[in-house]
């Protein structure tokens, strides 16, 4: 099957390579000519414009977007539409907000174009392990694209599926990432508690390896944690600053809108926010209030 791929960042490049290995024709386009050259070396066909990418695909065409959420997706779609024909399909494989996906699908349906959203998980390991794909869109459009999903997935019948109409794929991926926030926070807090029990001299790497086999909390995320601790047991050189890419926020907002309590995911998101504030003003206020009502000592900072 033929597929156009727009956005050849690290993940897009790995996906392209997996598709080529699976016998699919892939035409790649990226603002970085070097990224295009790299996938060409892996067997893909390169393009330096949307027009050239589309010209190399047979109708009905399928074009997969791996671009940042928000305006970049809308801009790319706007540039694509004039060159597409009824029956063509655009697949958004990024982490778009599901409400934006629903809006885009409705607008493209008026032009008789299909819009499929694939919430895609697997990162850089996807080339070897395959990608988990939560897919939303018209059932017939998804069925036609099945060979693509079967190649990208861990197995033809595992790790992927149509979960509902347009927008549902990104909604499920949003919740997936919210769960990920909670799991990461639990591992981090538990290991930090072990680290603080100094009198036992606990070896975090040893304990993590024990948990990998037979324990209730074994997981791929734990496996990755073991790999990280093996390389850097003390986490030297790692800043205590954790970014959030948006999906956790959207998940918590959705919980508020639907009246669904999400204490673990909300707490994990709050922890990331706190890590991003090098001098949390709220903590300074706490120290000041304790001093005001109880005369408790306040630690001062030295201006440089």
Q: How much strand? A: 5-15%
How is the biggest beta sheet arranged?
8 strands, mixed
| Ends distance | 61 Å
The portion of residues assigned to helices is 40-55%
**Helix-strand string:** EHEHEHEHEHEHEHHEHHHHHH
Number of strands: 8
Question: Residue ranges: pLDDT <50 for 5 or more in a row?
Answer: none
Overall average pLDDT: 94
The helix/strand class is alpha/beta
Number of helices: 14
Q: What's the alpha carbon Rg, rounded to whole Å? A: 23 Å
Strand order of the largest sheet: 3-2-1-4-5-6-7-8
Shape: globular
Q: What can be said about this structure in brief?
A:
The protein has 304 residues and is α/β, with parallel strands linked by helices. The protein has helices spanning 10-21, 33-41, 50-55, 71-80, 98-109, 126-129, 139-144, 146-152, 168-196, 204-212, 220-231, 247-258, 263-275, 281-294; strands spanning 2-6, 25-29, 45-46, 62-65, 89-92, 114-121, 132-136, 160-164. Strand 2, helix 2 and strand 3 (45-46) form a beta-alpha-beta unit.
């Amino acid at each position: 099957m033929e597929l156009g791929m727009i956005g050849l960042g690290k993940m897009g490049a790995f996906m392209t390579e997996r598709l080529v290995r699976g016998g699919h024709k892939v035409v790649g386009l990226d603002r970085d000519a070097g990224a295009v050259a790299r996938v060409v070396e892996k067997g893909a066909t390169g393009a330096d414009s949307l027009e050239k990418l589309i010209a190399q695909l047979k109708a009905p065409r399928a074009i997969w977007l791996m671009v940042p959420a928000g305006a970049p997706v809308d801009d790319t779609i706007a540039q694509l539409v004039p060159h597409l024909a009824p029956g063509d399909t655009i697949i958004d494989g990024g982490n778009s907000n599901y409400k934006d996906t629903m809006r885009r699908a409705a607008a493209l349906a008026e032009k008789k174009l299909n819009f499929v959203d694939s919430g895609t998980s697997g990162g850089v390991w996807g080339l070897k392990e395959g990608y988990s794909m939560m897919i939303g869109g018209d059932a017939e459009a998804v069925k036609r694209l099945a060979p693509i999903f079967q190649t990208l997935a861990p197995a033809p019948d595992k790790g992927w599926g149509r979960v509902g109409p347009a927008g549902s794929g990104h909604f499920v991926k949003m919740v997936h990432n919210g769960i990920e926030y909670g799991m990461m926070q639990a591992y981090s807090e538990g290991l930090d508690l072990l680290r603080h029990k100094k009198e036992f001299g606990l070896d975090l790497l040893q304990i993590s390896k024990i948990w990998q086999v037979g324990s209730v909390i074994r997981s791929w995320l734990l496996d990755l944690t073991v790999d990280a601790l093996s390389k850097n047991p003390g986490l030297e050189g790692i800043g205590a600053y954790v970014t959030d890419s948006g999906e956790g926020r959207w998940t918590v907002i959705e919980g508020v809108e639907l009246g669904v309590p999400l204490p673990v995911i909300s707490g994990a998101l709050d922890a990331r926010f706190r890590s991003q504030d090098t001098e949390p003003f709220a903590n300074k206020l706490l120290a000041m209030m304790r001093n005001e009502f109880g005369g408790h000592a306040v630690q001062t900072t030295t201006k440089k």
